[in-house]
Specification:
274 residues, Fructose-1,6-Bisphosphatase, Chain A, domain 1, globular, single chain, 5-stranded mixed sheet, D-Maltodextrin-Binding Protein, domain 2, binds D-MYO-inositol-1-phosphate, 2 domains, 7-stranded mixed sheet
């Protein structure tokens, strides 16, 4: 992920974009809370595979976010998980996951999030993530740090990690059966070499947990940009390093760890054939 330092005007612009993301994200989170029925949520359709659900509430959340942001900034672009793509002309593009952790949402496991990132000329400059179920919020601006935003705003600095053999590693599995099988083989290699693995079910929350120090490292193959754009900035602004297999994080691989153990962890991930 790029780490160019913005000037004062750039930083003010990033904070302004974060402010809009926070407003739209909180409203969407409220919609998701209000509309979620008790028990299991009905799946409206499936996407990349039979296990990849979309609900009417995902669609409503994405529409709300797009309408709020593009009403205020009609020249911006928009990329959302549920396909509401809009080409913009301003150089700013919003990257949105209206519910990250949809399977948790469907089953009522309280770990699903609204995630909104703003990219300027392709670089993520602001990101907001809210866990809909427990209302915890994370926000970051490029060059301005990572912060918890629920309650009083407070900076987040990822705590010093243990040695690689002591890392608690978050991971996830995609929806494609073949990719899952490969992920399972890689996790089987990694598991005996670290403290343990966690699969919590929402990549955005995994990366915020990395920033907070609730886990020490993260690795996943097959993520889409809306899964990691906002929370990836939270993690890097908190002092973690994010990488892909060779270069920037991408669909092939996203891995992250505190800067103090990043290179060693990344080497281990590569050795485990992720
Ligand atoms: C999924 C979650 C999950 C991860 C998958 C993602 P979705 O996003 O982030 O934790 O393992 O790779 O696709 O479909 O719930 O928005």
């Amino acid at each position: 992920m790029t780490t160019s330092a913005p000037g004062a005007a750039g930083l003010a612009d990033h904070w302004a974009l974060l402010g809009l993301a926070v407003e739209a994200g909180r409203e969407a989170a409220q919609l998701v809370r209000d509309r979620r029925p008790h028990g299991r949520v009905e799946v409206a359709a499936t996407k990349s595979s039979d296990t990849d659900p979309v609900t009417e509430i995902d669609r409503a959340s994405e529409s709300l976010i797009r309408d709020r942001l593009l009403t205020l900034r009609p020249d911006d672009g928009f990329v959302g998980e549920e396909d509401l793509t809009v080409e913009g002309t301003s150089g700013v593009e919003w990257v949105v996951d209206p519910i990250d952790g949809t399977v948790n949402f469907v089953y009522g496991i309280p770990a699903y999030a609204v995630s909104i990132a703003a990219r300027r000329d392709g670089e993520v400059v602001a990101g907001f993530v809210v866990n809909v179920a427990d209302r915890r919020e994370w926000g970051a601006v490029l060059g301005g740090g990572a912060h918890r935003l629920d309650g009083t705003r407070r900076p987040i600095v990822a705590p010093d990690p243990p040695a690689v053999s002591g890392l608690l590693v978050a991971t996830g599995f995609g929806y494609d059966p073949e990719v899952r099988a490969a992920q399972g083989r890689s996790v089987a290699q990694l598991l005996p070499q670290v403290r343990d693995i966690r699969r919590m079910g929402a990549a955005a929350l995994d990366l915020c947990a990395l920033a907070d120090g609730s886990v020490d490292a993260y690795v996943e193959r097959g993520l889409a940009i809306w899964d990691h754009a906002a929370a990836g900035l939270v993690a890097t602004e908190a002092g973690c390093v994010l990488s892909g297999l060779d270069g920037s994080p991408d669909q092939r691989l996203v891995m992250g760890a505190h800067a103090a153990v990043a290179e060693e962890f990344f080497a281990l991930v590569r050795a485990c054939d992720f």
